[in-house]
Amino acid sequence: xxxxxxxxxxxNDWPTLGTNLAAVLKPRSFECEILENTDVLTFRSGxxxxxxxxxLLGTWYVDIEDAPSPxxxxxLVDEMARQLGEATGQQAIHYRVTD
Length: 99
What we know:
CATH architecture: 2-Layer Sandwich
Structural class: alpha+beta
Strand content: 35-45%
Shape: globular
Order of helices and strands: EHEEEEHE
Number of helices: 2
CATH topology: TATA-Binding Protein
Radius of gyration: 12 Å
Mean pLDDT: 92
Number of strands: 6
Low-confidence stretches: none
């Protein structure tokens, strides 16, 4: 179960995203079913379940369960980070915290 963080490259806080996290964080190139879209975004893509939540100042925490491969998990988070950066005008960086 890989876990990731997504933060701004300059260390600043993210702008407010509003209440529809899926509009910004749900990867567009993956078919996804939204399970929860409140202060936590949870969605399923195939057998993979992804949860994204605001954990620390300036940091999104992403938990991925049942990804078919580490590469798939990396692609999901890479796309989430890129979309977050595009939506906010910030440069997003992401790190794998655990495998």
